[in-house]
Structure to design on (408 residues):
């Protein structure tokens, strides 16, 4: 009976998340076209590469998000409310500390890189610096929000998450249309509205969790047993996050150094397509993740493995059905979608979708590994392989290879 209820919950959450992702995909593709048209290829590329540089300073974020989500979901599976509050409060305290560290790095090393090493049009440097500062603030707000979104996910409250995201997507359409009539630099306006939407959604999540979950009543503590346990998990996860960032945002920066912002614009379009399509598949695995972790915490290993195997299979099949038509007719779809298709966009789109189909097979398996807390061997092997992307790409581009070489 418990498994039957769990399966129904997974099915309900999957449909909810899938609907959210589908709406976000359709509207996101439309707003991307408007944004590219309103900003122009050069400014669109600038925003993408500046965002990638900020993401490099946030290398702590991905591993923190994973670690906090794992521990909150695990304690919820054990029905330990007192321990759950300690985990939440300690997690938020850690996020405050990391936000301060990232702010200091961003205002020193980041500014130095933006103004002395990145390749931007000279007449756009004022806008570049504005966008960098706003993007840094946006990132810090989203970082502090991690503990609250992790709590909503652990409680499988996807209704709130989906509702907020759909609402924000609708508001973004209005903001992008207003981009054509912005009384200021369009690129700076674009950065500001992204910051304000992030601030509004983060504030809502914090208020909602504080009112509905007693575990989210923050206390300024750092629980030592939790810090020790999380430290071991986080240190290995951080290694994997660094490798992932260098493979993603790091490659964006490398391409900027060799080719400039126009190729970064092509990457941004490809990333938009990949994110939209894979988010549909992510709705299936996201609905399963809390149940996988809770099943492990409660000792129901057979049900956990059933979820892992079925999740991997169905995610791949669904992604294949969506990706195959796009891969075959990439040029036609991009021409219909965008008024101006940046050079190299077609090959980038095809490659990111093939890559996504490889990655989706391991999604639920990674969740199961993280549920155990024993991720050292996994991170050593996978993280080391991913780290090789950055130096190899730099060497090959330096020898005159084409931009898509980084994807291969």
């Amino acid at each position: 009976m418990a498994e039957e209820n769990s399966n129904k919950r997974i099915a309900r959450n999957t449909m909810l998340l899938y609907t959210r992702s589908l709406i976000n995909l359709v509207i996101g593709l439309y707003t991307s076209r408007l944004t590219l048209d309103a900003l122009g290829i050069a400014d669109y590329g600038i925003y993408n590469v500046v965002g990638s540089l900020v993401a490099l300073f946030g290398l702590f974020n991905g591993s923190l998000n994973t670690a906090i989500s794992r521990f909150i979901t695990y304690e919820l599976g054990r029905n330990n409310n007192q321990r759950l509050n300690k985990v939440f409060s300690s997690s938020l305290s850690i996020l405050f500390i990391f936000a301060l560290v990232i702010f200091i790095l961003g205002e020193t090393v980041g500014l130095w890189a933006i103004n002395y090493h990145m390749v931007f049009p000279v007449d756009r440097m004022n806008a570049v610096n504005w966008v960098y500062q706003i993007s840094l603030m946006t990132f810090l707000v989203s970082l502090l929000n991690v503990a609250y979104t992790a709590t909503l996910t652990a409680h499988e409250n996807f209704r709130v998450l989906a509702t907020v995201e759909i609402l924000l997507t609708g508001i973004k359409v209005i903001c992008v249309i207003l981009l054509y009539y912005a009384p200021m630099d369009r690129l700076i306006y674009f950065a500001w509205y992204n910051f304000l939407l992030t601030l509004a959604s983060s504030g809502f999540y914090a208020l909602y969790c504080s009112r509905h979950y007693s575990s989210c009543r923050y206390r300024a503590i750092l629980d030592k047993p939790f810090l020790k346990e999380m430290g071991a998990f986080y240190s290995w996860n951080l290694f994997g996050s660094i490798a992932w960032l260098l493979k993603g945002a790091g490659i964006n920066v490398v391409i900027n150094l060799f080719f400039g912002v126009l190729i970064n614009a092509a990457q941004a379009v490809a990333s938009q397509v990949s994110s939209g399509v894979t988010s549909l598949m992510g709705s299936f695995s996201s609905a399963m993740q809390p149940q996988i972790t809770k099943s492990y915490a409660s000792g129901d290993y057979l049900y956990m493995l059933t979820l892992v195997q079925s999740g991997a299979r169905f995610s791949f099949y669904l992604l294949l059905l969506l990706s195959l038509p796009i891969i075959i007719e990439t040029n036609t779809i991009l021409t219909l979608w965008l008024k101006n298709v940046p050079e190299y966009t077609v090959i980038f789109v095809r490659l990111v979708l093939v890559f996504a189909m490889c990655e989706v097979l391991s999604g639920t398996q990674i969740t199961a590994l993280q549920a155990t807390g024993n991720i050292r061997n996994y991170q050593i092997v996978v993280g080391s392989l991913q780290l090789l992307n950055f130096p190899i790409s730099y060497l090959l581009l330096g020898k005159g290879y084409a931009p898509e070489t980084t994807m291969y």
